[in-house]
From TrEMBL:
It comes from the Bacteria. Transmembrane segments: none annotated. This is Amidohydrolase-related domain-containing protein. Signal peptide: none annotated. GO terms for biological process: secondary metabolic process. GO terms for cellular component: cytoplasm. GO terms for molecular function: carboxy-lyase activity; hydrolase activity. Coiled coil: none annotated. Keywords: Lyase.
Length: 352
């Protein structure tokens, strides 16, 4: 069994309204291609709600505001379509509810209501918007709602990450800017104190966490920066450190070490570089990595993606955890297992 926790689809109506890759509307084609490789279930959602991921002014004749607020009826229509599509493809699909992290009370309440509908098993939200990350107080309502809902949250870059507003080249933004947004977004989340205040929440990072795991040995510096110690000895102990006063800008809302909190995060397998996966293994362990392809819209050779997991320096049981076990544990997929077992029974003759 293989479960893909990171896929995207969109209705034909939404695709006509905004510039989007056409692969997003081919739901049946996606299911067939994945099934041929052994991927039985995909959890799908939109990281931009009913809007396109393309920034406001990158397509002639199309405009959308920088702010993440969007027409309420369009978002409701998207979730209605997602729910209906999951019901049609119950053996193959589950869905995320999109929620604007910095949205008003009405939008957060609407996301909570949609989560109670059949087929929705998690939230999809953005690392940042405009000039704000997840440490912003404006995200308080989102975190309270997510904790009450008790579902996993896929964190995904949005159309205009906070760190990318001045990037003019869309290829640079799309291919490099969004993974950088994941790196900064996870760091902001860890340093915000939210993981300590909401210990039951499970966050899955798209883009394999960006470069976050590569910075893991430095994240505690954000609280106690070594370069502000002006003593010359290189062998001092941490408790013996003394030097210039640490600027007030170096602060965290958590009483725990950021490096301790970082180990609670989850990442997907979007990226293909084995060195990044191995860095994630060292930081998080195999039980905190979930199989995700970002397909569609990303064109993927699914067999190669699966083999890349099996080629990691881990045992077979750990590989199976990444491919399916961790997702089964994180998401409430009892109904999927029941449907799968029922289908197996219909395929096996009585007494066979």
């Amino acid at each position: 069994m293989i479960i893909d926790v990171h896929g995207h689809i969109i209705s034909a109506e939404a695709a006509e309204r905004a510039p989007m890759p056409r692969s997003l509307v081919d739901v049946e084609g996606m299911i067939e291609a994945k099934a041929a490789a052994g991927i039985e279930l995909t959890i799908v959602g939109s990281p931009s709600g009913a809007r396109t991921m393309a920034p406001a002014d990158r397509f002639a004749g199309y405009r959308q505001p920088f702010g993440y607020q969007q027409p309420f009826d369009q978002l409701r229509a998207l979730h209605d379509w997602l729910g209906e599509t999951v019901q049609t493809w119950w053996r193959n699909l589950r869905a995320y509810v999109y929620c604007d992290v910095f949205g008003d009370e009405r939008s957060v309440a609407a996301a909570a209501e949609t989560l109670r509908e059949p087929g929705f098993v998690g939230l999809i939200a953005n690392f940042s918007a405009d000039a704000e990350y997840l440490d912003s107080p404006r995200a308080d309502d989102f975190f309270a709602m997510a904790e009450e809902a008790g579902v996993p949250i896929l964190l995904h870059a949005g159309p205009m990450p906070a760190s990318c507003r001045d990037i003019a080249n869309y290829g640079l933004l799309e291919i490099f800017g969004r993974p950088c947004d994941a790196t900064l977004g996870l760091a902001a989340l860890v340093l915000s104190g939210r993981l300590e205040r909401h210990p039951s929440l499970n966050f899955i990072s798209a883009n394999s966490g960006g470069a976050f795991s590569l910075f893991a040995d430095r994240i505690d510096w954000a609280v106690r920066p070594r370069h502000w110690d002006d003593r010359t000895t290189q062998n001092r102990g941490e408790d013996d450190a003394a030097g210039a006063p640490v600027p007030e800008l170096h602060r965290t809302a958590s009483s725990l070490r950021p490096s301790e909190l970082a180990g609670r995060l989850y990442v997907d397998t979007t990226f293909d570089h084995p060195s990044l996966h191995e860095a994630n293994l060292r930081l998080l362990g195999a039980r905190h990595i979930v199989f995700g392809t970002d397909a569609p819209p990303i064109p993927v050779k699914f067999e190669d993606k699966i083999q890349a997991v099996r080629d990691l320096p881990i045992g077979e049981a750990e590989a199976e955890d990444i491919l399916a076990g961790n997702a089964l544990r994180l998401f409430d997929l009892t109904d999927f297992l029941e449907a799968r077992a029922s289908a197996e029974e219909r395929r096996v003759p009585a007494g066979g």
